[in-house]
Sequence to fold (749 residues):
Amino acid sequence: MTVPPPLGPSTVLGYPRIGPRRELKRALEAYWDGRSTRPDLLATGQALRAASWQRLAALGLPALPSGTFSFYDHVLDTAQLVGAVPDRYRAAGADPLDTYFAMARGTDRLAPLRMTKWFDTNYHYLVPEIGESTQFRLAGDQPVAEVREARALGLATRPVLLGPVTFLLLAQPAPGSPSGFTPLDRLPDLLAVYGQLLAALAAEGVDWVQLDEPALVADRTGPELAAVRTAYRELGELPQRPRLCVATYFGELGPALPVLAGTPVEAVGLDLVRGRAAASRPELDRLRDKVLVAGVVSGRDVWRTDLDGALALLRELRPRVRELVVAGSCPLLHVPYDLARETELDPALRSRLAFAEQKVAELVTLADRLAHPAPAPAPVDMSAPTPVHPPAAGNGRSPYPVRAAAQAARLRLPPLPVTTIGSFPQTGELRAARAALQAGQLDQAGYEARVESEIELVVRLQERLGLDVLVHGEPERNDMVQYFAEHLAGFATTRHGWVQSYGSRCTRPPILHGDVHRPAPITVRWSRYAQSLTRKPVKGMLTGPVTIVAWSFVRPDLPLREVVGQVAEAVREEVADLEAAGISVIQVDEPALRELLPLRGDQQPAYLAWAVDAYRRATSGASDRTQIHTHLCYSDADQIVAAIDGLDADVTTVESARSGARLLAEPAVAGFPRGLGPGVYDIHSPRVPDAAEVGELLAAALRVLPRDRVWVNPDCGLKTRSYAQVEAALGNLVTAARHARAQPASPAH
Fold:
């Protein structure tokens, strides 16, 4: 028997899609490596979808979403579904799956689409390219096919689609677009395709469709709000369509709320965790004739919900709307699957946590308690084991020209020095050694010998290729944040708490639950060993305080600024110990600096001020002779050039190759006063750029920047690539740099 068509009384906006044991990761990588077939991959996708629906139903959730699974990225799925495939990819293969992965990962001849962060999360999406000639059309029937898959299991689902306005706001103009064109100009044509799809879903018997519009919680202009009004009036007035739920999340809806309220859509979803203030605003009364999908359970962290507080809020809201649905604040894509597998966590901490399955149980409980009042259970103790103390203030360094002279005398680097960002490939042998250590099958001495062997291989490879500033390759690290969390007090780490970052890439965010401090040096042992193998400088590699906190699940009652400050103190101590060990170049990465930027403009200056201050606190104890590097990747660094300047790092490396060197178009870049390395090798694609391609990207940088400040480097770390790819690509970087050194300097510089 089929479950009734779902919207309430409780639901989730989306669910993790990698599989509880990362089944999708393994299936994708087997397919890409030629170890499995297309039918194998498709069967894995179908099995994961079925397992998710059945598990959600077993947990008692009455309203199930479909369309939240993806083989790589849901924004890319939408682009392919509506026919927004740039012409250069259409020849990548007759199979739509080949075209899809060409856009995601590139091919030997094609670079992939640009990739950047999904709002203020660590999930990455592929940026669609929309031009005046983009031929929108309904290409495929995946949303309908998934409805049928679920129905075959006896389950009804609510298809989830990326909303048309957010899709266009996330897109970029296609190459060659005229000045002034924006993808939002194509809204009328895109709406025609959405209308076709909604009609097809209605014909299939679908009762509700969810359209995700998270872009509406950011600052939006008058014309953009007018586009929202146009979109949902037109879709709402379709003669044949399901009922529509427009889901917004990641913050307070603000001025877009009355706009949506004035359209014929039947339901609006609000994030009442990050946008809690909306519940007390009179504008909410504009939804009195609609269904409110109330996001009261956080989809962005792993902490248990205050059920009494959430229930009180729901009871407050119920009289103000036609109907109330209890929901997550956003899709559960950003949390791990199941806390039950984390048997090694401290029981006291574990009692305060909730992963995706536990959050579903909270939703079901809240809906039941809303419908059937009962005595409240004992509250969960969320108190801190220790107070959070403000960090100590840091010292300053000399002005950059003084530092630059001291570093030049010490390092004696050539013009256009070549370096990498930090990590080298994590081989199967390394992962096996780490697993054997954890299982007690390899002792610590044996493990360290294996790590030392890998470090020596990496150092010798870089010397042979001719790099100028080397790295040790980070073979001892499982992840750039988790590794530090394992060595800092105040953190806990999980064994199975995987979360998707992009495609097949998954991370295990640590859990930050109390006071942070550094009991002992973390990286010094490996950096000292690497430096002993070579006369060339080897970078000490650290993750910055903002990134460590941003990529962790931070207890929600802890003051974020003070927590970041505590981590900054720990990093500062590590910098001092690296210096004392003779390390002359220290890189403190902050790829999450842009990621944590608030979505509302009026909140951004205060954040950037304290985030930059934390970085400078972490690094300002270094001597003038120590060269401080930082790195930012896949995070629209062009939007925060002034803040990057404020970090006062001696060298900043940034993603640039994949984004088409868009950073170089920023006027502030031409006057950037310190070293800058716009990436010339996109490491998130398996393709290897030849020396000519690298040379073109390097030449673009030299047209904007003086050659004495340009560095040559990849876009990001090399962890996900193979040694064959890395050796070929780095060889081409060195060739391009040597060729550029031999050319006369530009008169402008």
Summary: The chain has two domains: 10-371, 411-474+523-542+560-742. The first helix runs from residue 23 to 32.
